[in-house]
User: Fold these one by one.
Assistant:
Number 1:
Amino acid sequence: MLYKKIHEATAGEFYDIDHYDSIITESQYGFNTRGEVLFCFVKGAINPDNRRKYANVIRSCCKSKTKNRGASAGPVDLRYFPKKAVALCDKYGNEFDDDKPRYSVYYKEADGKIVNRCQSNQVRSGVAGYFDKVAGLPCRKVGWSNKNPLKHEDLIELAKEIEQTHMTHCETSYKFHKKEAEKCSPELLFKDTIYSTMTLNYDFRTAVHKDKGDLEGGLSTLTIFEDVPDNYTGFYLGLPEYKVAFDVRDGDTLIFNAHEFHANTDFQVLSDELPIDDLSGENFAGRMSVVCYLRNRIKDCEQSKNM
């Protein structure tokens, strides 16, 4: 099916379900007006016998707190900053007295100290696998994978399942990724796959954003695991400029162009089976998302001594 851009989105905005003209609930392809794959939605992509194992492996990384997600974490809100924060401000300590949305700011503590690191709302998100040079750090195996070698090995199995879906349902994209992955040091990939990195999220409702660092001209993959089956409604992944969204549930994989604006709709938790999240003050929904992709510049890395 062909999809045209019919809306102009702005980074950092949230869109609810009423923005979208269609919610896709079954396997389907979509193409942009240039005839390129916009998305390939595959229901039940992950073997049901493996889903619980993978959920148990990724949970700790998914639930990590981070404060560097920028616009994808939405306009800054003091409630989503460390508890010691008493006011949001610029780097000079000037507090904001307007309603302009901001996505990375500084904050003050009760004693007037200004925390000298610009940051966004705290969300639950972590990274596994490998990174190229960024923020002054070398090409490397990331901290979580270094600290959890056995879990990292299990993620190789997950990467291979996702890759099989990519190859079977989106062959042209797969071949492009494979060609680019062959330029990379094998030590910087999930072993024998086309992917270098996984971003792992827990109940992270993203605002409108474009992924950075992904393979240029390539597609990324989104796979969902649920801590408690059918524990929430909503949480659709949407492409707001195309007004199409996807009900990606346990074991489903969406292969899509993450360089397009995308975001999640609001959601409703249906039970109190999971504990309360200290960030939101509400019970967890239990939605774990796995974004599996190839870093664009990782082909420029030499083998790292830290691996």
Number 2:
Amino acid sequence: MWEPYKKGYKAWLQLERSLSENSVEAYLRDIDKLTEYLQATQSMKTPDAVELKDLQQFLRWVGELGFTPASQSRILSGIRGFYKYCFIEQLAKKDPTTLLESPKQKRALPDILSFEEIEAIIGQADLSKPEGGRNKAILETMYSCGLRVSEVVGLRISCLYPDVGFIRVVGKGDKERLVPIGSDAIKYIRIYQQEIRVHVAVKPGNEDILFLNRRGARLSRVMIFLMLKDLVQKAGIRKNISPHTFRHSFATHLVEGGADLRAVQEMLGHESITTTEIYTHLDREYLRETLHRYHPAFKT
């Protein structure tokens, strides 16, 4: 009885929300979990008959299965999306998720790098080797623009507008955004293009991809991770660093510098500003530490 609803929801996610295939599948798995629960508890209702109390019990069931609060929230996001679709398409008279509370979770503050640490890591790139020049251009771009690793490996030459200082980025759900790019990143991209990339035999289908491996194909995300891990080790930095750390650091440095949160949200490509607000939490930690260190009422 749920299959026609699921098919309609899938088409809605693809057409109305323009989500990627992976995101669509993730949302459908969330609905599968709900139907699995309804079957397991022998309370199989049609979507329009499901009530708030059913969803509350479902979340408790998911928690008992060992899902973390973060995973529970992720599942709940899929359920909310499904009922939003049902309500819009008039397949349900009410949305039972309206009063459903998200599981309480502690938002972990990610490791961040200081500007000096980022400079030290980028400085480890061996410019005597072609891949060293490419890697320097990649890291300068990641920090300058706050890109996700998937965005940097998919960056296209046709999306570069160095004369006006912008790049066009294709993010999650194939959503495009324009992001400012700094002069250092532009400089090292140009060096890479003019002195390194021109000597690479490009594989068919990769002509417009900016950063290539030695075989002329698009880089993998794993390659970026391993490259960064090697440079971090050489720089003697003992933090838990991943390509995403550059993105976190980009955002944190902007917020600490007084940037408007909406502007940071736009540059990061966050759909919701609540995702961007984690960086105000990072900034508050810094402010609290400063207060305890320098304010006379807090000194011990």
Number 3:
Amino acid sequence: MIKQDEAKKVLSIAVCDHYNHVNHVRQLEKERADGAAETEYASKMSFSSARTGVGKTYLIKHIADLIKVPFVKADATKFSETGYVGGDVEDLVRELVHKADGDVNRAQFGIIYIDEIDKIASAGSMIGRDVSGRGVQTTLLKLMEETEVPLRSAMDLQGQIQAALEFQRRGKSSRQTINTRHILFVVSGAFERLKEQVSRRVKGQIGFSAEPIRVMDTNSSNSLVPDFIEIRIRAGIIGRLPVRVVCERTKRG
């Protein structure tokens, strides 16, 4: 893959940091379990892209192939809050288990890539429950913060039938789960509304004291956090995505 040198560099460093931390925690678990539990590290990352077709999926999938971890990719627009019509974000974690050929332990160290994250920003003018916007963000945040995801979905009729049959045979049913602590979450989006928001803010800065800010300069990530929140991306999610990079536009032949 040609170009995207900055994205390659940022991704490589972020992925190395993440899995070095994972190895450190696993070693701590063997030596001192309480020390491992107390260890905190924000190792998630975010992508920002001006358009589709710049190679984001290829980059991340290639990294997953190189380090031999299961990889799952989906568009955020396909999901709704758990219990409503539409996909469930937790299904991505279950899909990791499928990609790992049923090996739950291996799946716990996989990579989940969610595209079009900007399109589930909750609408400020919406009346009623925003199950495909804020609801999805809430579920995604829970996964990023570490939780146990049941391998059998509550909406999976076949899985529930199997659980009922198991209960009849044994008097109990096993509740297998997968922990999300070490899963690496990567999200991306075009963030057109972010460009508009930053443009409005920059235009509002008048005079010699105005701070020069380039529109969509996501390398100055701290200055953009209020803008992400303004376009209704949850603050908790932004806090879990400390690494940001802008992919270069590629010429189409």
Number 4:
Amino acid sequence: MAASTNSEPVVRIEGLYKSFGHLEVLRGIDMEVHRGEVVVIFVRSGSGKSTLLRCVNLLEDPTRGSVEVAGIRIVGGHRTKHKREQIRQVRIHAGMVFQQFNLFPHMTALQNVMEGPVTVKGLKPETVRPTAMELLAKVGLADKAEEHPIRLSGGQLQRVAIARALAMEPDVMLFDEPTSALDPELIGEVLQTMKALATELHMTMMVVTHEMGFAREVANRMAFFHEGMILEEGTPSDMFNNTKFPETRKFLDAVL
């Protein structure tokens, strides 16, 4: 299990609400994630878990409340639109791994990993290349550096996406159901990569997933979402053995 610390939180979410028209998806979320922590968020589909991650890195503007990443605090509502530089900084500090990989198809795996540091941070390609190669090696894909996405399996695509996010040296990694688009035989290689990030690099991670084996082995905390709120949270032992609410138990019984 990844180590948890009592340091200042890397992510602090306070009173977070998010609505799409008349549909309120998030309803007053309060959460902190400390350096080195792995927090697994689990819930049935449609309960706002992906929206939460998208609010953390400001792909979605919070309707109300605030999100703070690495000391950069963004308050929800119309004011966020006047804080473009702060939002850019938040996205540098919060790496995002999506369900559908979102790699650039015209670029090689290596070029995809290099793209962020070159275009966002303004670093020279020759400076970034060695680090990008190291990251591809770390996710087990050094031999695929010159391949284009069309020639990679789903598991390989997701591992390139993880390396791409790591290339920005984020303070927290956000994983939005990273295995949901993968065939069953490819899920293990992605989860193994994520486990290595937690146990070897002590990477701070927020992970939305139904992979309860990963949660049991790697998470410091788990949070169960229900109707746009955190219904229950605790250690994996708490959640698997001593749930407080029947909704949590029902969900776990269905996926275990």
